[in-house]
Amino acid sequence: MFKRSDESLINKALDGDERAWQQLVSRYQTMLYHYGLRLMGNPDDARDLLQDVLMVLCRNLAQFRGDSSFKTWLFGIANYRAMDMLRKRKPTQDIDDSPDLFNDDEPTAEARLYGQQTQKIVQQQLKHLPADQRLVVELRFYQQFTFDEIADQLAISSNTVKSRFYAALDKLRTQLEVAHVEQSANF
């Protein structure tokens, strides 16, 4: 069986085809949830973000013009809603540890443990980045959008996206070096 295009599903969903709507949602809901989990930092906020994005999608699907891919448009909505949620969050509110999101296929238990520890450290350090930088890193690494696509979603220039991205990488590198030194000192 072939995979229907987003445009085909959108047109059918707009014509009232509930099955097409469900296929469209199921195609992106896991991706959106994981995006929310990494960006927001805890499952409850990720579910709230997902629900919010799907409600906006339901109300505004007819406004999709096709100027960009549907995925880009949808993540633009998610970006806007996530930034809104993060702005409303109390400054002192701490972000919970996020669960392990990736399965490692390393052959040895030692390699799996090291990979999980490294992943956990990276996720911890991502939480310390400013929200606008964390968003760009999320979209570039995890969602694999181009700089131009991210710029379209955030309504900023590609140069601003690149600036935020590379500033975030510099901060992450510094934070990870410090974390590595601290971890080595504990052994």
Automatic annotation (TrEMBL):
<feature type="domain" description="RNA polymerase sigma factor 70 region 4 type 2">
    <location>
        <begin position="121"/>
        <end position="172"/>
    </location>
</feature>
<dbReference type="InterPro" id="IPR039425">
    <property type="entry name" value="RNA_pol_sigma-70-like"/>
</dbReference>
<feature type="domain" description="RNA polymerase sigma-70 region 2">
    <location>
        <begin position="24"/>
        <end position="90"/>
    </location>
</feature>
<dbReference type="GO" id="GO:0006352">
    <property type="term" value="P:DNA-templated transcription initiation"/>
</dbReference>
<dbReference type="Pfam" id="PF04542">
    <property type="entry name" value="Sigma70_r2"/>
</dbReference>
<dbReference type="InterPro" id="IPR007627">
    <property type="entry name" value="RNA_pol_sigma70_r2"/>
</dbReference>
<dbReference type="InterPro" id="IPR013249">
    <property type="entry name" value="RNA_pol_sigma70_r4_t2"/>
</dbReference>
<dbReference type="Pfam" id="PF08281">
    <property type="entry name" value="Sigma70_r4_2"/>
</dbReference>
<dbReference type="GO" id="GO:0016987">
    <property type="term" value="F:sigma factor activity"/>
</dbReference>
<comment type="similarity">
    <text>Belongs to the sigma-70 factor family. ECF subfamily.</text>
</comment>
<dbReference type="InterPro" id="IPR013325">
    <property type="entry name" value="RNA_pol_sigma_r2"/>
</dbReference>
<dbReference type="InterPro" id="IPR013324">
    <property type="entry name" value="RNA_pol_sigma_r3/r4-like"/>
</dbReference>
<keyword id="KW-0804">Transcription</keyword>
<keyword id="KW-0805">Transcription regulation</keyword>
<keyword id="KW-0731">Sigma factor</keyword>
<keyword id="KW-0238">DNA-binding</keyword>
<dbReference type="InterPro" id="IPR014284">
    <property type="entry name" value="RNA_pol_sigma-70_dom"/>
</dbReference>
<dbReference type="GO" id="GO:0003677">
    <property type="term" value="F:DNA binding"/>
</dbReference>
<protein>
    <submittedName>
        <fullName>Sigma-70 family RNA polymerase sigma factor</fullName>
    </submittedName>
</protein>
<dbReference type="InterPro" id="IPR036388">
    <property type="entry name" value="WH-like_DNA-bd_sf"/>
</dbReference>
